[in-house]
Batch of 4 targets.
Target 1
Amino acid sequence: MTKRLRWGIISTAKINDALIHAINGAPRSDLRAVASRTTEAARAYASQRGIPTAYGTYEELLADPDIDVVYNPLPNKLHAEWTVKAAQAGKHVLLEKPLVTTMADFDVIAAAAQANNVVVFEAFMALHAPQNRKVAELVQQGRIGKLHLINSWFSYHLPPENADNIRLHPDLDGGSFWDVGVYPNSLSIMVTGGRAPQEVWAVQEIGESGVDVSMSAQLRFADDVVAQIYSGFRAPLVQGAQYIGTEGMIRTSAPWFPGMQGRTAFGADPVIQITNRDGSEENIALPATNPWQMEVEAMEACLLDGAAPVVPLSLSREFLRSALAVYESARTNKPVALTS
């Protein structure tokens, strides 16, 4: 391993722009290559974004000995296949959320990572953001007393006429919960200590293409902490999170993109708002940071310094267990109990 990480990206997905900006801004990373399904598409994309090498197949990029880490933003259905192939080629992988959509695929990735001694972690940029990590710290330290309730939501408008969008394709594991519901799901699990809920109840609205266009779920954790979470494709772009305890409430207005305008520009510093039981208020302002760059730097720390991932596979397993229970409850219209 060199003292700098050499990155390659498979596909020319729109989300890449956030990672390209992040890799270019990270202190110990270099973006070396991009791969697409055709040489022409890869060369055009690389030329537009200043990427030195373009490959016309994903296999060519994985065979490049000068690539240490691969970013995989492919459609959900392809996550397991290409992450396993990357691991078998000796590449570490930053894998876009959701990691996978079945437990069988999770087990395949975990086994490939272990067998090939590579790091694979889920690209939950919001869980790397200092604002959300500070909230988890405050809650776990008892700043608002005993936690009772979490409310969190993430939605945006994705109209049915946008039928070619992969998020609306059932055969690619689309759906609002897999796309944006995983954010409040994962945050609730992180804040409550890293374990999946004990019971889940969910309701969904199925859209024209057969995927969920809204999902409302209630997660019951140990100690009777309840999280109420929402995702949707038929609502305005809204995000937020609230945490209610016996001694107060914490609110964050932008938990998924704290302090950012779009994916590369900074706005105002994010603020954690605390309302105490007596009605007094306190604001904790944190410097705006790029959460995508923080996950790139987390990979640097893992591979160059021996640090543990911020989102290890063990935590991603809990996220997946909860998400699968949400979908099962919505499908059956019954509560679903999770076993350890």
Target 2
Amino acid sequence: MCKFAEATDTYVVLGTRDRLDVIVLDSRVGSQAVLDLRLTPGKRLNIASSLMGSALLAAIPELERCYLQGNVERRAGRDWPMLRRRMAEKIWQVHELGFCMSLGEWEPELATVAVPVCVPEQPPLVLACIGRSARMARAPVERE
């Protein structure tokens, strides 16, 4: 994580699911990165409104995913249709590409790529790389 963060001047985050949240386990930031995201271990992100959450949802069995989405729907209220659409799109990206990305979609100045990491007999993890959208164009992100 350190080497990748340094080589790409990005923020690299490792997380896992805890109920309806993603909890940050570890993070590293490149010395030239101009981000201060404060994604330190223990930080919680809503599974429904984070790219890391969508990547984690893509890694779990469909029955479990449907159960979690039902709980997310009850919590989200009026935001549910938009969140459901975003989650479905990102889950599809993981199944088709192996990763999902948001290039300025949720936060205009941020680009994020997330990938589930599955270790046998362990809960799924998610690894994300976050950088400035101006420095992360779609073609290189998809290629690299």
Target 3
Amino acid sequence: MKYKMIALDLDGTLNNDEKVITPRTREALLAVQKQGVIVALVSGRQAPGLQREADALELEKYHGLRISYNGGRIQDATTGEILFDSAIDNETAVAFLRHLEQWPELSPIVDDGEYIYTTDASRHKVMDESRNNNLQVKIVDNIADAVDFAPVKILTAAPNEILVPHLADIRRGFEDKLSFVQSAPWFYEGTVKGVSKNSALDQACKRLGIAPAEVMAFGDAQNDMSMLDFAGYGVAMGNACDELKAMADEITATNNEDGIAVTLAKHFNIE
């Protein structure tokens, strides 16, 4: 078998625009797992936010992987064991949150695996992140004061026209400690320096004895570029950003047109 792992981004890739896995895509991924292929969900989402898709694809039955926080955590879907966890040290996290206070138009989103900490639930994308990731919202007077833990990721949210002019401001002074990537027009993500979807897949594959050439990866956004760079065969969805399409080995149909199933049918013996 040429490919032993299928690595999947979630939003805009595995899920259609209604945030669901279509029946055709689900059946295709169940079929390849029955052939012994490992399916890895590789998402910028917080860890609890991968549960729904993991259940839909029966990853627990097939020893799939849940890779969350843009590569910050790797978890075995069958045993629940955390295989890798890379958290931002508390001192750096608090300093970065203080740094973001200079721009009140930006909305920091930070979680402890159970709660999103915010000063106002109506801030940009806070409630969307709460719903998408099965996280409750905790209202605090000051986020930096409240964060007494080591978060795996710190997200900065704002409408695209506000966020993009601030990208250099956001990372200034923290480039040596954090890695940054824009995962959506309204999100800029910070993780421990060197952590990415690429680094997480590298660790997971070494543990499983899978070569990069044996990995097929699907994505749609800028934070998927490192994943496609790692994989032996990189597939950009038809709705992907131009940068991802330019580096992909294949451009498939969109996330609303069963792009994953279309490509899997070409490479695996499935209906």
Target 4
Amino acid sequence: MCTLETITIQNNPNGRELWQSISGNFDRFSEIICEFVDNALSNFRKYALDPQSSRKVRIVLHDLGDWVDVDVIDTGTGIRNIHAALTLGSRSSMESPLNEHGMGLKHALASIDDEGCTWSIQTRTPEDNALDRYLMVEGPYGLGEAPMTGVYQAGWGKLIRPTGTAVSFRCTRQRFETLRPAGDRAEKPFETLVDILREELAYTYAQVLLRNELTLEVMTGTETRPVLPLLPLWDSRTLQEVPSL
């Protein structure tokens, strides 16, 4: 075989195109919220934080009509390596099996990054606390040709304790309404959708809540409502013993 020419393959990804290609991984609003809660829980498990004071996740929802503003605020130890946290596929910041693949946070952010939507991350580590600052990173996602930047700002930002992380985003009302059960097309008021979210979180994290691994609360306006574990009620009369083979 006679080689005529060797060429270099230009396969560096375009950041925006790659970001858009992973944006369809979450179909429902609750899946996005659970991704952020899982990240917080992963942090709580790694550092064995006191559940009474340092294992809280607060979900704040603001009804803006056609839009909904969302904050998912945890009281963990903050994001210690923001570079790895925002690198697709990076596992260097893994804290537990809940975030071992290095894709969840990016998938969730990409899934809400529609036209007109915005997102940001505010995080404050113990080291930042000593310097009375927090790190702010805002969308859009940048890669290679248009890298993102982080800005340190004074104070706590949206955080509710000296350390932690707040993921904030604005989504369309249409995306928020994916909280409706499958096949349910009836229009529902904002508060009803909030109740559906609380119920879904209550059974998704039932065992975690029972073990006091975290506390969950949902805040709308001036009202803060806890998420309590929701477990099935088994009817013993319907139980049947399965014989061994």
